[in-house]
Design brief:
67 residues, alpha+beta, Arc Repressor Mutant, subunit A, three-stranded antiparallel β-sheet, 3 helices, 22% strand
């Protein structure tokens, strides 16, 4: 994970639920870039049995996986 992805992850941990659009505005990135970063973050967290749960294309939640 790069520095930007680490910052996005820290931002996610501070909130229970947020929208990709909000992340896009907060980090001045396109929504596609945010989605790509979330895939990388999800892969990283998956190795630690934690997954980002996305509801549709808009909302994001973080939850413990049931692995």
């Amino acid at each position: 994970m790069n520095t930007r992805q680490q910052k996005i992850l820290a931002y996610l941990y501070k909130r229970e639920n947020l929208q990709i659009k909000l992340l896009s505005e907060e980090f001045t990135l396109g929504e596609r870039t945010i989605r790509n970063d979330l895939k990388i973050i999800n892969n990283y967290l998956g190795k630690k049995d934690i997954l980002i749960i996305k509801k549709g294309m808009i909302n994001i939640n973080i939850a413990l996986s049931l692995k």
